Amino acid sequence: MGYAISDQKDTAPLAVKILIAGGFGVGKTTLVGAVSEVAPLRTEEYLTHASVGVDDLEGVGGKATTTVALDFGRITINREIVLYLFGTPGQERFWFMWNDLVNGAMGAVVLVDTRRLDVSFASIDFFESRGIPFIVGVNCFHGVKDRTQEEIRKALDLDPQVPLVLCDARDRTAGRDVLLALVEHLMDTQSRAAAHPVA
Q1: Following DSSP, what letter does each residue of the chain receive, concatenated?
Q2: How far is 11 from 26, CA to CA, in rounded Å?
Q3: How far apart are the C-alpha atoms of 7 and 166, rounded to whole Å?
Q4: 45 - beta bridge partners?
Q5: How far apart are alpha carbons 187 and 81 in whole angstroms?
Q6: How far is CA 129 from CA 38, 109, 137, 159, in A?
Q7: Count of Cβ atoms closer than 10 Å to residue 123 Cβ
Q8: Is 105 in contact with 132 (CB distance < 8 Å)?
Q9: Rounded to whole angstroms, what are the CA distances from 188 to 37, 102, 165, 197?
Q10: For the whole prediction, is pTM greater than 0.85?
Q11: Per-residue pLDDT tens digits for 95-153
Q12: Is the pLDDT of residue 45 over 90?
């Protein structure tokens, strides 16, 4: 993927706010931590007995902590673009925070787990209803690819123009590729909007 780099060395890079969203336990904190070039800010707390019956832990039995506010990281794409990553909390009781986190966001990555696709429906609906461009990152836990891309698209009812990328959220290169796919999608979306302005 080629991006033009300006000859002007004194211009500040474009700061782009990106949300990393998805259901509880799909790998959002892991992705932000894997790609961030600075020590990521995390607001994780240990799961306690108080969450029993409140948070759905099905399929994430080994999970001991959860994000209660946000994750934050940064990655420089090139001299012209720096992405600021905001990981959203996944539990339904913290969804009210999404309305604040989305302010100023240019786009989003919705991470999904093919074993629990239903936990990411709310994230997809959230960005679709607000007209915010997003891509879907399929976190292939332990390299397991148990569904085809076509099956995942159908299950999530994705529009054809929404990119879908397989990844391992633990791997820096794979995470960077997901973010590059989002940047390219944002550029394509802007180009289409410029070519077909709304009257």
Answers
A1: ------S-SSSPPEEEEEEEEESTTSSHHHHHHHH-SSPPEEEEEE--GGGBTTB--TT-TT--EEEEEEEEEEEEEETTEEEEEEEPP-SGGGGGGHHHHTTT--EEEEEE-GGGGGGGHHHHHHHHHHT--EEEEEE-GGG---S-HHHHHHHHT--TTS-EEEE-TT-HHHHHHHHHHHHHHHHHHHHHHHHS---
A2: 37
A3: 34
A4: 66
A5: 12
A6: 32, 15, 19, 13
A7: 27
A8: yes
A9: 26, 21, 16, 14
A10: no
A11: 666 788 889 999 999 999 988 899 889 999 999 999 999 999 999 977 777 889 999 99
A12: no
Backbone region of residue 131 per phi and psi (left: phi > 0; alpha: psi in -120 to 50; beta: other values): left
Residue 114 in tokens: 């093919």
The two tokens of residue 45 are 């707390």
Residue identified by tokens 């925070």 is 97
Q: Would you state the structure tokens that stand for residue 57, as one six-digit string?
A: 């832990």
The count of residues in the chain is 199
